[in-house]
Amino acid sequence: MIGQLNAIEQEALAALRAVEAGDALENWRVAYLGKKSPLMTILGDLRALSREERPAVGKRGNEVKNALEAAFAERVEAIRREELQHSLTAGALDVTLPGRPIPHGRLHPHTLILREMYSIWAEMGFQVYRARDVETDEFNFELLNIPQHHPARDMWDTFYTTTPGVILRTHTSPGQIHAMREYCPQPIRVILPGMCYRYEQISASKGIQFLQMEGLAVGKNIRLGDLLGTMSEFNRRIFGPERKSRFRASYFPFTEPSVEVDVSCANCGGSGCNVCKHTGWLEIAGAGMVHPIVLKNGGYDPAVYSGFAFGLGPERIAMLKWGISDIRYFWSNDLRFLEQF
Ligand code: FA5
Predict the structure, then answer these.
(1) Atom 26 of ligand 1: nearest residue by CA position
(2) What is the C-alpha to C-alpha distance for residues 19 and 84, in angstroms, rounded to an integer?
(3) Using CA atoms, how far apart are residues 306 and 179, in angstroms rounded to an integer?
């Protein structure tokens, strides 16, 4: 019987070493320490043994039972430690790793250039005035001294709507009339940013939908020199102090005299290159002294008041500043372009 107990002990301990976890552990407990296990059967049947045999078998049986219980407890603890260690290494969190970058949006270059222009004009005393994108023929053309069938209408290829007389504005200049009628007879210094629409052949420098920023100053004793000085100062502030400004005589029906505003080419410094078509200059705006008819249409007496106006192309300015070669990038929604700003 003692030999049988020794065999049970050896077998149980060997089996326990092979046990990994979970069900196998419980199965081992039932097989070797459970009520119906051989060991428990022997211990439960001691009375069936002879008086001489009983103490030795009982003693050895209890020793085996204690040994197996201790080994079992130890194995349970060892497995628990192994599992803990495993979960610590498998799910390890390295708090020293740099975090994953969170993609975040940026301001569109349209917004960036407009904001920069707003702040320059604000420093010079111009406030933003908003006018509508959908205009009437009257405001877009007639009140700006461009009557029906006037050949100057060819300068603006227009998008018409199905409502007669209602169009998409071809420039921000109709806002001049809205501003004058609202402020008359006070002096005015406003900029009018916004989208314009023209039925154009799309190219690297021309869109059918593009930004303009109109400027309007109306008051007493405003002269051409004020316009030239103001535009030169704007050019210096937006492009840098080394940039020169040039004014060329031009024609717009709503200004007299009219000029085109050029800045010296940033690419070649004025010596001539592909960007400036070898002229050394780049055009950025149309401008002029507000035509007396337009002043009158706005409610101001041209004998008392005078003013200047200009129309800047913010996309063209952004292209010059940031070396953007094609105006179509602004609407491309291409992240490779947008993420550079
Ligand atoms: C005008 O639209 C006049 N209203 C400007 C003006 C205002 C003159 C006040 C006098 C007094 P022009 O068509 O040249 O002028 O346009 C002005 C600027 O808008 C251009 O210099 C250019 O920068 C921009 N622009 C014009 N057409 C487009 C186009 N299709 N795509 C992108 N930018 C354009």
Answers:
(1) 313
(2) 17
(3) 15
pLDDT number for residue 50: 85
What's the pTM? 0.73
Contact indicator for 341, 105 with CB cutoff of 8 Å: no
Contact 262, 282 (CB under 8 A): yes
- What's the CA-to-centroid distance between 77 and ligand 1, angstroms? 83
Q: Is 309 in the pocket of ligand 1 (CB under 6 A)?
A: yes
Q: Are residues 303 and 247 in the same domain?
A: yes
The answer to whether residue 88 scores a pLDDT higher than 90 is no
Question: Do 173 and 131 meet the contact criterion of CB atoms below 8 Å apart?
Answer: no
Task: Say yes or no: CB of residue 311 within 6 Å of ligand 1.
Answer: yes
Instruction: Give the Å distance between the CA of 183 and the centre of ligand 1.
Output: 25
Q: Give Cα separations from 81 to 70, 71, 74, 87, 237 (angstroms).
A: 17, 15, 11, 10, 70
* Both tokens assigned to 111: 């917004």
Q: Residue 176 CA: which ligand 1 atom is closest?
A: 9
Ligand 1 contacts CB of residue 315 (under 6 A): yes
Q: Is 154 within 8 Å of 181 (Cβ atoms)?
A: no
Structure tokens at 67: 């040994």
Residue 164 lies in a domain: yes
| Ligand 1 closest atom vs CA 313 | 23
Atom of ligand 1 at shortest range from CA of 290: 11
Residue 26: pLDDT over 80? yes
76 and 134, same domain (yes or no): no
Locate 296 and state its tokens.
């009158």
The reply to whether ligand 1 has any atom less than 6 angstroms from the CB of 286 is yes
Is the N-terminal amide bond of 257 cis, ω within 30° of 0?
Answer: yes
> Range of 145's domain?
109-338
What integer pLDDT is reported at residue 173 of this predicted model?
A: 98
CA of 310 to the centre of ligand 1 (A): 9
- Mean residue pLDDT across the chain: 92
pLDDT at 214 over 90: yes
Answer yes or no: do 74 and 145 share one domain.
Answer: no
Domain count within the chain: 2
Q: Can you tell me the distance from the alpha carbon of 257 to that of 286, in angstroms, rounded to the nearest whole number?
A: 11
